[in-house]
Amino acid sequence: MDVSTAAWVALGATVVVLLAIDLFFFALKDEEISLRAAAWASVGWTALGLAFTLVVLAYSGPKYAGEYLTGFVLEKSLSVDNLFVFAMIFGYFAIPAVYQRRVMFWGIVGAIVLRGLFIAAGAAVLETFHWMIYIFAAFLIVVGVRMAMHRESEVDLDSNKVLKVVNRFIPVTREHHGHSLFVRQNGRRAATPMFSALVMVAFFDAVFALDSIPAIFGVTEEVFLVAAANAFSLLGLAALYFTLAGMLDRFRYLGMGIAVVLVLVGVKMIVNELVHIPEPVSLGVILLVLGASVVLSLRSERREQIAA
Question: What is the dihedral of CA 65, 71, 77, 81, to 10 degrees?
Fold first, then answer.
């Protein structure tokens, strides 16, 4: 795939403009967003990401359009699993709902920057040592199996080393001070719980990238498509969170579905070296697994309600 410098500049400018729109019309408002508004925003961001498929189709043809679409769906589905951890972080630091949008926005900005670095590093590694594709595949399979076996375990923020380092070098208040990240107390500058929550969101975004980046390289090795799929999937993450915030517990089998998808992508990376699997097949399998996990979750909840 031949990508010009102009295309990279256009992609970067588009992401910056969309982030600016999100900042001024969404993130800076210190008020709770309604479920209706969040749902419409989520639909809009998702439609925008899907529409980019048509751009790729017009300039590069159906093969690369299919790779982008599969990568976007994969990244979008992986981002849903991240929301469970974000909800836990906001609960742990007791972040009021009116300020959660700011934390999510700056966490997304940090995630885009970090993932850009990871993508560049991953592309350089694969270009120099193509056999590393097998390492990526094995890593995804191991992560998927571990995720499937330990779905009930929760992230323990009390023993998180990053948070301990922050608390050691930066005084942290227990009280909230609006949306401020830092305040002055007794002549000293101290961080607020908002700052600690932002650090944790950024940290876990980086952790999540460790499996999402190898996963999308299993779909396409075109760096431009990898970058575009990651950017567009992250742009709507905040709206998706506020759409699903009250329903995350209902999708009890979604994590298992995502674990299966990671294992299947890992297997595909290995098999593709021998037999090419068409992207429509990959996309169909991903949608089938995720759809089945959602249906099973809702049916299980309904059976429990009937039994109660």
Answer: -160
